[in-house]
Amino acid sequence: MTPLQRLLLIPCLSPLLLTLLVAGLNLGKIGSLRILTWELPNLPLGVWMAVAATSGAVLGSGGVLAAGSSNQQTLQREVRRPYTWQEETPEQNTERAATAAATMPWPERDLREPAPTVSVPFRVIRTGRPSKDSVAESELKERAASKPAETSTTVTDDWNQPIPSDW
Question: Less Cβ crowding at N or C end of the chain, within 10 Å?
Answer without folding.
Answer: N
